[in-house]
């Protein structure tokens, strides 16, 4: 990852004084997950440029020194990820480490320089901005006076139909104090990146408020900036927004600003899905049930509470999810009588498997949208033709509702791993087609708050076998 800052206010070499880094030297800093190098590709009276080169070791990120920085349950993702190449929270850490004095607005030798507004240019080689892209980059930087130049990148030149990637090359120009520019970058880069922060901790709010002092409160997109910056800390994000806006505790920030997953968490949408699934499974009178694509076992945990079910099975394709499920369900410490009711196994819904048959009921909660269309056809046969539960509860997002998520780009999906998301009509037509083919009947239910025109955020089909 490389980021450069150029000064064109004469004498441009003042940049070296402000940064406390001599232009003739290369300066290297150790970071928790690699190294940062500061150097000057050019240093003249008319233009001086400082470069920040970040070397992130992706293996060390996962393994190093007992740090637990592993990715999101996708084991290859722990080693093969974009972190070494993109501007992210690591960049903020590096900026604050390499340029802390300048960021804090002090300059021992030339204090008069601190308040001087300089004609500065920033180039960020690769800036990820998922769920928002160029619009979001402009929305974040332009209100602060930046002239923004964004270059998108096609995902793969050999497959133009895949479209653009979430990565952009960004050039920013503004006449500002260097300390302001550094704090803008410190806050806005991780906020745009919107990925897991490897340095998130409870004092993150304080850092955000300190770095955002003097500009974040007035920023028109402040709620969105804060929510994305604190992506994994929703409650803390709310607290930060409250502190910034001095809202009464407990009131929701205005507007529809959170990323969809965060929003889903806020409205407890997933819980509503699970509740409806349990309600329908109980009502079906089933005594045996299998959760297909169980993930970390949230539905199974609820099913266990119902004595009606004397045989509950959790299956998933992912070992990582299954081991999480075992932990979540306290499998190892489970009383023998409880454990007798429960079975957990690994399998794929795209291959015929006798272990899936013989259940009164099955659940497929937020699973189908993870399969490519041709794989979905295999799943249809595996579930409806071979496993053949008497009752099947199946849920999937309603794509029409995406329009209400402020920061979702047209045509984008709620999760990176989704292969498709259907409108209500698309889901209903697929479900009716599958039912007809396999002698099932189907009833549809909305999950979550129902909006007049776009419906509810999620939808469920309850399938009942005809014979
Ligand atoms: N049903 C869970 C998890 C939903 S996430 C819940 O509602 O919380 C989707 C899950 O489907 C993931 O755990 C993923 O591993 C699983 N999955 C995706 N493709 C699968 C396949 N072909 N066979 C079995 N499970 C699959």
Report the principal-axis shape: elongated
Task: Please count the helical segments.
Answer: 16
Task: Determine the N-to-C terminus distance.
Answer: 61 Å
CATH architectural arrangement of the largest domain: 2-Layer Sandwich
What structural class should be given to the helix and strand makeup? Answer: alpha/beta
Give the biggest beta sheet. Answer: 7 strands, antiparallel
Strand ordering within the main sheet:
2-3-4-1-5-7-6
CATH superfamily name of the largest domain?
Answer: Hen1, N-terminal domain
Which runs of at least 5 residues are low in confidence (pLDDT < 50)?
Answer: 64-76, 246-267
Q: Assign the CATH class of the largest domain.
A: Alpha Beta
Helix content: 25-40%
* SSE order: EHEEEHHHEHEEHHHHHHEHEHHEEHEHEE
How much β-strand is present in the residues?
Answer: 15-25%
The distinct ligands, each listed once, are: S-adenosyl-L-homocysteine
What is the β-strand count? 14
Mean pLDDT: 84
How many separate structural domains?
A: 2
Walkthrough of the structure:
Helix 15 (373-387) links the parallel strand 11 and strand 12 (391-397). 33% of the residues lie in helices and 23% in strands. It folds into two domains: 2-199, Hen1, N-terminal domain (c-terminal autoproteolytic domain of nucleoporin nup98, 2-Layer Sandwich), CATH 3.30.1610.20; 268-465, Rossmann fold (3-Layer(aba) Sandwich). Helix 8 (222-229) packs antiparallel against helix 9. The relative contact order is 0.08. The protein has 467 residues and is α/β, with parallel strands linked by helices. The longest helix has 16 residues, at 178-193. It is elongated and about 85 Å long. A seven-stranded antiparallel beta sheet has the order 2-3-4-1-5-7-6. Strands 10-9-8-11-12-14-13 form a seven-stranded mixed beta sheet, sandwiched between helices. The chain is built from 16 helices and 14 strands. S-adenosyl-L-homocysteine binds at residues 293-295, 298, 316-318, 321, 348-350, 365-367, 370-371. S-adenosyl-L-homocysteine binds next to loops.
């Amino acid at each position: 990852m490389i980021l450069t800052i150029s000064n064109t206010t004469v004498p441009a070499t003042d940049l070296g004084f402000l940064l406390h880094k001599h232009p003739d030297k290369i300066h290297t800093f150790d970071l928790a997950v690699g190294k940062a190098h500061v150097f000057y590709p050019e240093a003249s009276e008319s233009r001086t440029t400082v470069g920040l080169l970040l070397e992130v070791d992706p293996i060390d990120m996962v393994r190093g020194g007992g740090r637990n920085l592993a990715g999101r349950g996708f084991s290859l993702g722990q080693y093969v990820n974009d972190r070494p190449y993109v501007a992210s929270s690591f960049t903020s850490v590096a900026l604050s480490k390499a340029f802390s004095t300048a960021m804090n607005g002090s300059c021992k030798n030339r204090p008069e320089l601190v308040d001087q507004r300089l004609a500065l240019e920033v180039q960020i080689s690769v800036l990820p901005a998922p769920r928002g892209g160029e619009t979001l980059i402009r929305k974040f930087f332009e209100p602060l006076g930046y002239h923004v130049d964004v270059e998108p990148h096609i995902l793969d030149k050999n497959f133009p139909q895949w479209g653009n990637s979430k990565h952009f090359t960004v050039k920013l120009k503004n006449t500002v104090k260097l300390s302001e520019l550094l704090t803008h970058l410190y806050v806005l880069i991780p906020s745009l990146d919107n990925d897991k922060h490897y340095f998130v901790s409870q004092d993150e709010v304080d850092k955000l408020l300190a770095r955002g002092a003097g500009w974040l409160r007035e920023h028109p997109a402040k709620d969105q900036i804060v929510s994305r910056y604190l992506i994994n800390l929703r409650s803390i994000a709310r607290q930060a927004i409250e502190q910034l806006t001095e809202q009464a505790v407990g009131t929701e920030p205005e507007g529809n600003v959170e990323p969809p997953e965060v929003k889903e968490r806020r409205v407890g949408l997933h819980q509503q899905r699970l509740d409806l699934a349990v309600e329908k499974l109980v009502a079906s009178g089933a005594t045996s049930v299998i959760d297909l694509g169980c993930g970390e076992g949230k539905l199974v945990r609820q099913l266990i509470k119902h004595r009606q079910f004397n045989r509950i099975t959790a299956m998933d394709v992912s070992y990582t999810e299954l081991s999480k499920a075992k932990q979540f369900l306290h499998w190892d410490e489970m009383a023998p009588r409880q454990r007798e009711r429960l079975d957990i196994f690994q399998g794929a819904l795209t291959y015929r498997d006798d272990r899936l048959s013989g259940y009164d009921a099955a659940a497929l909660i937020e699973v189908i949208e993870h399969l490519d269309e041709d794989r979905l056809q295999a799943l249809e046969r595996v579930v409806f033709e071979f496993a053949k539960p008497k009752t099947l509860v199946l849920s999937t997002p309603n794509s029409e509702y995406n329009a209400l998520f402020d920061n979702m780009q047209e045509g984008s999906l709620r999760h990176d791993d989704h292969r498709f998301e259907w409108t209500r009509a698309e889901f209903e037509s697929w479900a009716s087609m599958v039912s007809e083919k396999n002698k099932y009947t189907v009833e549809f239910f909305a999950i979550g708050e129902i909006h007049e025109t776009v419906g509810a955020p999620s939808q469920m089909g309850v399938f009942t076998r005809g014979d």
